[in-house]
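Posted in: Protein Modeling Q&A

I'm a second-year student putting together a small comparison for a lab meeting, and my supervisor asked me to include a predicted structure for Cytosolic Fe-S cluster assembly factor NUBP1. I've never done this before, so apologies if this is the wrong subforum. The sequence is pasted below exactly as I got it from our records. If anyone can share the structure token output, I'd also love a short note on what stands out.
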Amino acid sequence: MELATSLGDPSPGRARDEVAICARAQGALVSGTSFTLVGLNVAPQAGSAAAAGSGGQEGAGMEEVPQDCPGTSSAQAGKGASCQGCPNQRLCASGAGAAPDPAIEEIREKMRTVKHKILVLSGKGGVGKSTFSAHLAYGLAEDESKQIALLDIDICGPSIPKMMGLEGEQVHQSGSGWSPVYVEENLGVMSVGFLLGSPDDAVIWRGPKKNGMIKQFLRDVDWGEIDYLIVDTPPGTSDEHLSIVQYLSAAHIDGAVIITTPQEVSLQDVRKEINFCHKVKLPIIGVVENMSGFICPKCKNESQIFPPTTGGAEVMCQDLKVPLLGKVPLDPQIGKSCDNGQSFLTEVPDSPATLAYRNIIQSKCLKHVNNYLIKNISLWFTVLSYLIS
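Accepted answer (user: helix_wrangler)
Welcome! Here is the predicted structure, written out as tokens:
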């Protein structure tokens, strides 16, 4: 499958209908100004979505966001001095960019059956974010009374199919939408990796197409009744993060779990990630320090493979007043389990890393979202009692 041609070619005729999110529109979200995300329509063939993808406007290249960008909803949109030279100047001036995206309301309705939505973020790649996402889903799914969904929006680097043992699977379409691929009866997965002809195919997409794909995952997948939707994101703060926050803005996101490693080079990017969450009003459930030392299986002594030169995640969380959910030590078996598409939690149940995962999942991470549910149940009982009386 030639993704560079079948998924990446622009279609100039749709330029007015499907417009790229320029850097200025991204800045509008960060500054609190509403703007519209317009994506391309990628629909699977009946029965299979392996050949998904069609042309769409690829949009202009990104540029530095000017501090005085008026935003698409402003009366000065497309007319101000800072708008000169912007590739979306004509669109903003027409007022079309300020129209609310109808997909946001459609997604809100679709998400009514999803009780909790948790984003897993990281400032830097390679810190174990997808590994944590997979094992958070595995751990939650051990309770057979709960329905769990794992959504992979790392569009250009989808690793979830491999980690969940689902490589080669395809997405199928029914009358009610796209069907997730199931690991177990109560654990469904959706990823762009299921739409590729080969795991080696490169997804050569710019922001607008990524945004369109995320919109379709949220709007068109038939998740059914879900207790927890875990969203595995790419590293950093890019189009995918802006899209998921914008599209779920009306559906309530419980919060984000941010993954880091102990060294300062990783913590620097986590601080940016935390700042991003504050700016877009995304609640932070807490931080997980991954690769936090190595415990020898024989002598039980701990060695710091990645020394926390500035105190690690613990000191950072204290400084920024963000919860530290836990520290997961290194274990070579984690990588082996992910390569084999197996749950490390069940493959190596006695590992210190397994214990750390379970402590995070059972004692802390869920405490936050469960408290939200309990508070709302209490509120409804209070309202109901008032109405009855």
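A couple of things worth pointing out for your meeting: The first helix runs from residue 3 to 6. The longest strand covers residues 284-295.
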